[in-house]
Specification:
Helix content: 40-55%
Pfam families: TRM (PF02005)
Order of helices and strands: HEEHHEHEHHEHEHEHHHEEH
CATH topology of one domain: Rossmann fold
EC number: 2.1.1.216
Number of strands: 9
Radius of gyration: 27 Å
Keywords: Membrane, Methyltransferase, RNA-binding, S-adenosyl-L-methionine, Transferase, Transmembrane, Transmembrane helix, tRNA processing, tRNA-binding
GO biological process, one term: methylation
Structural class: alpha/beta
Catalytic activity: guanosine(26) in tRNA + 2 S-adenosyl-L-methionine = N(2)-dimethylguanosine(26) in tRNA + 2 S-adenosyl-L-homocysteine + 2 H(+)
Largest sheet: 7 strands, mixed
Length: 319
């Protein structure tokens, strides 16, 4: 116990939600206690996404089973019809064929062709982990999650994250993994692999967006924070245009415009890879904005029609 006390004398324990972290008194690793509302909101959205993902999977399985059952029954009925016409069967044989079809329709509740592909737990990526608090809270407070990958390109942050994973016990060591790597490279090397990607950088997320929209699985969730509100709200239009591809204007609606600029930038990056986004939740809070979007893949023709219709809709609004 004395050795443990000596090791912990330079640290203080910070508790948030169900997770606890060891924070060094020199504060070598970045930790922002104000972002607690950000993390609480992310946990609520993640829980809703997991439930929605399960509902969509069950609906898809039911749809496939129904279509497979109809195809099988129609194939059997066609075969029986052909046998009756070629062989010139009598009325008794036709009745037997009808009874056989009825029996097959009754057994459709337990068909041999039923699709029972199991839904895998969602894989989560936190691109900028720092102390690992966000990943630890996901592991301890969100049920149904699979592996959580926490990345950082700072050696001290990764060591601190590993320490906090062990400090939170077996419930986190079995789920959370941390690596010392550039998040952009890691996401580019794992396209469409992660069901959830969380971006919470210190400043602008613009340099991570291109790789993030490629790393999200089809129908996955992308969570993104931007804290450079001065740029997004019109203080420096040239910088905003270089980072997000939009030119802001000052006004009472500047925070809403900041949300729209970030969403438009994510959409632009997604369109380059024949993908599009569906906003789930967009929030301005304290000194930052936070958006939650789902990323889907479409055919090139569908994407072209979508962009044309969106352009016509925007022109109508401007007129």
């Amino acid at each position: 116990m004395a050795e443990v006390d000596d090791k912990l004398k330079d640290y203080e324990i910070r508790k948030e939600g169900e997770a606890e972290i060891l924070l060094h008194k020199r504060n070598a690793v970045f930790y922002n206690p104000v972002q607690v509302h950000n993390r609480d909101m992310s946990i609520a959205v993640l829980r809703t996404f997991i439930a929605k993902r399960k509902e969509e999977h069950e609906a898809l399985v039911d749809k496939r089973n129904t279509s497979h059952g109809k195809d099988k029954l129609s194939e059997i009925s066609c075969q029986n019809g052909e046998d009756a016409s070629t062989g010139q069967q009598d009325e008794m044989e036709l009745n037997k064929a009808e009874v056989q079809i009825d029996d097959l329709s009754k057994e459709a509740t337990k068909p041999p062709w039923k699709v029972t592909r199991e839904l895998k737990p969602p894989l989560v990526l936190e691109a900028l982990a720092a102390t690992g608090l966000r990943s630890l809270r996901y592991a301890r407070e969100v049920e149904g999650l699979g592996k959580i990958v926490a990345l950082d390109n700072d050696k001290a942050s990764v060591e601190d994250c590993k320490r906090n994973i062990k400090f939170n016990g077996a419930s986190t060591t079995s789920k959370v993994e941390t690596y010392l790597v550039d998040a952009r490279i890691h996401m580019l090397m794992h396209p469409k692999e992660f069901d959830v990607v969380d971006l919470d950088p210190y400043g602008s997320p613009s340099i991570f967006l291109d790789s993030a929209v490629q790393a999200v699985a089809d129908g996955g969730l992308l969570m993104c924070t931007a804290t450079d509100m001065a740029v997004l709200c019109g203080a420096n239009g040239e910088v905003c245009y270089s980072k997000y591809g939009s030119f802001p204007t000052k006004g009472k609606y500047c925070h809403e415009m900041a949300l729209r600029i970030l969403l438009a930038s994510i959409e632009s990056h997604a369109n380059r890879y024949k993908r599009y986004i569906v906003p789930v939740l967009s929030v301005f809070m304290d000194f930052y904005i936070r958006v939650f979007v789902r990323v889907f893949t479409v055919l090139a023709a569908t994407l072209f029609i979508f962009n044309v219709l969106r352009g016509l809709f925007r022109r109508r609004i401007m007129v």
